Amino acid sequence: MKKYIAITVIIIMVSFLAGCGDDEEKGIGPVKQVTLGSVDKALGERGRVIFEQKCVACHKIDSKLVGPPLKGVTQRRKPEWIMNMILNPEQMTKENTTAKQLFGQYLTQMTFQNVSQDDARAILEYFRTIDSN
Ligand code: HEC
Predict the structure, then answer these.
(1) Can you tell me which atom of ligand 1 is nearest the CA of 92?
(2) What pLDDT is attached to residue 3?
(3) Is the CB of residue 90 less than 8 Å from the CB of residue 109?
(4) Taking Cα atoms as reference points, which of 79, 48, 74, 65 lies closest to residue 108?
(5) Using one digit for the tens of pLDDT, what is the confidence trace for 11-43?
(6) Which residue, judged by its Cα, is nearest atom 15 of ligand 1?
(7) Inter-CA distances, 16 with 10, 20, 30, 130, Å
(8) How far is CA 65 from the centre of its chain?
(9) Which atom of ligand 1 is nearest to the CA of 66?
(10) What tens digit of pLDDT does each residue of 78-108 get?
(11) Nearest Cα to 26, choosing from 92, 119, 104, 110?
């Protein structure tokens, strides 16, 4: 009987840890799974327009501004992480290790820019367009 309890406890612990690992890589927020195809230039162009309205106050592509340069972001982060950072930055900087470290480095809290999940997906495509060039 004791053996079964021990096994159950181990299973629960392992799945808990695996779950946390997923949150670290994919971030915390509404986006659980993104499937990527080849780069969609039209969607990326829509993303560029939103980026220029809502993000350039704090971000440049090639250099640091208030926030990090965004070139190469699709290589250093998972697509889900990028979208969750755009949609849920306050919780991300509190609970996701990578985002917390960035906050420690940049010392400014990124704020939610009132973008929809579709907008965030388009911005992700804009970053993919840049990183595929
Ligand atoms: C008020 C300034 C500000 C605005 C506006 C802002 N950000 Fe940020 N962003 C930051 C800061 C600062 C960080 C680093 C984390 C932190 O300190 O919150 C960051 C981090 C990021 C990251 C993670 C970068 C990396 O290297 O992993 C992404 C992606 C990002 N922002 C995208 C966007 C997008 C897209 C928008 C527009 C919808 C936007 N940000 C608007 C300040 C801002």
Answers:
(1) 18
(2) 78
(3) yes
(4) 65
(5) 656 656 565 678 899 999 999 999 999 999 999
(6) 103
(7) 10, 6, 19, 36
(8) 19
(9) 12
(10) 999 999 999 999 999 999 999 999 999 999 9
(11) 92
